[in-house]
Amino acid sequence: MKNVYFILLLLFGISVSAQNQTKRHFIIHSKFPDIDLTKYETALNQTSNLEAFRFIEKSRTIFFTDKLAWVELLSANELLEKYNKPIHLQNISINSKHHNIEFAISLDGKSVKAQSTN
Q: Percent of the chain having pLDDT more than 90?
């Protein structure tokens, strides 16, 4: 009977652990090793329209307006392959016209806003 409880507890632990793992859809980079990237991650995680900036065919690099960091948005094809995430209608083909942008973090730190660099 103890073995059954142990196995159930182990399976429950694995299930909870798997649910807590997030599916990375962007990577934040900085050339400054001491910079805290938490504010960038928080703002990007709270932003609901990142799909409108994601390329289908390849990853996209978008700098932040403060020039301290940049985000690499994984391509829609990468997300389909890694996580079986369907390609979103808002995703952009690299062959279509798109604007060069930077992200500005909102004053409350809860989202990013695209700023045109053209």
A: 68
Exposed/middle/buried for 40, CB within 10 Å: 0-12, 13-18, 19+? buried
Mean model confidence pLDDT for the chain: 85
Q: Are 102 and 118 in contact (CB under 8 A)?
A: no
CB atoms within 10 A of CB 90: 12
Q: What is the pTM of this model?
A: 0.78
The first and second tokens of residue 4, run together, are 């059954």
| Cβ neighbours for 65, distance < 8 A, ≥ 6 positions apart | 102, 103, 104, 105, 115
Q: How many CB atoms lie within 10 A of CB 29?
A: 12
How far apart (Å, rounded) are the C-alpha atoms in residues 46 and 58? 23
In three-state secondary structure terms, 28 is: strand
- Cα 28 from chain centroid (whole Å): 8
